[in-house]
Amino acid sequence: MILAKAQVNQSLTLPNESQYDQAQSFVNHAEGDLECTIALCEVRQQDIFTVSVLCYLLHQALEKWLKAYIVVFELPFDRTHSLQTLLDCCAKHDKDFDAIRDLFNSGEHEVMLAQSFPADLRYEMEWSFEQLLDFAEVLTHALVRVRQLVIACFW
Q1: pTM higher than 0.70 for the full model?
Q2: Measured in whole angstroms, how far is the alpha carbon of residue 16 from the centre of its chain?
Q3: If you average pLDDT over each of 22-31, 104-113, 122-131, which comes out highest?
Q4: Of the candidates 19, 62, 51, which has an alpha carbon nearest to the alpha carbon of residue 121?
Q5: What's the mean pLDDT when you consider all of the chain?
Q6: Are 96 and 87 in contact, with CB atoms under 8 Å apart?
Q7: Which domains does the chain have, with CATH numbers?
């Protein structure tokens, strides 16, 4: 996984203007989720339960980075955990998000992306180890790209 190579930066700080407060909170939580994911990769042997938790944390981090972007640009969105809905919202504002959404364009990835909350992945165990591992890779690539886009906008 490329997670071990990701650099977590706890010192990322958006400008102190009031409209950025909520976005900063999303960034802080996203970086915390990423840090937990990296720690889990370093400590645990990979099994289906570990990889399902990794998918959960990656989903959470990606969701929070997307919400930070949405909040800063004051894009209208309904409260959701759906990555597909959040990516669609961001893509209406910046076409670079289309390429990120395209990472999920295989049959089972589309199904996983459409899930409204990652707990389905963690608790229902409908997916095989290989499917979860593959999805973790896709989530990682999407997370790295979204994180780069948001950082480029503000830092």
Answers
A1: yes
A2: 24
A3: 22-31
A4: 51
A5: 81
A6: no
A7: 19-154 (1.20.120)
